[in-house]
Design brief:
79 residues; alpha+beta; 434 Repressor (Amino-terminal Domain); two-stranded antiparallel sheet; globular
């Protein structure tokens, strides 16, 4: 199998929960500030699904951090 035939899955991993807790922000407060439900924040923090681009940009602005400190692309080999 050539390098070009390999299949890769890229997962977006986030550190939202860790950052939020370090800053002393509750999940409810953050959800209210970002105008989403607590359930949405919970699902995103658990990597159940990724936020929209708009919400991801709001999150990094909320934390005042560069995107690479909040979100990471993790490449997995699906062999």
């Amino acid at each position: 199998m050539s390098v070009f035939e390999e299949v890769f899955t890229i997962a977006v991993i986030n550190h939202i929960r860790e950052i939020r807790r370090k800053k002393g922000i509750t999940q409810i407060k953050m959800a209210e500030d970002l105008q989403v439900t607590r359930q949405t924040m919970n699902a995103i923090e658990k990597n159940k699904y990724n936020p929209s681009l708009e919400l991801a940009l709001k999150i990094i602005a909320y934390f005042e951090m560069p995107i690479e400190q909040v979100f990471i692309l993790e490449e997995e080999d699906d062999k």
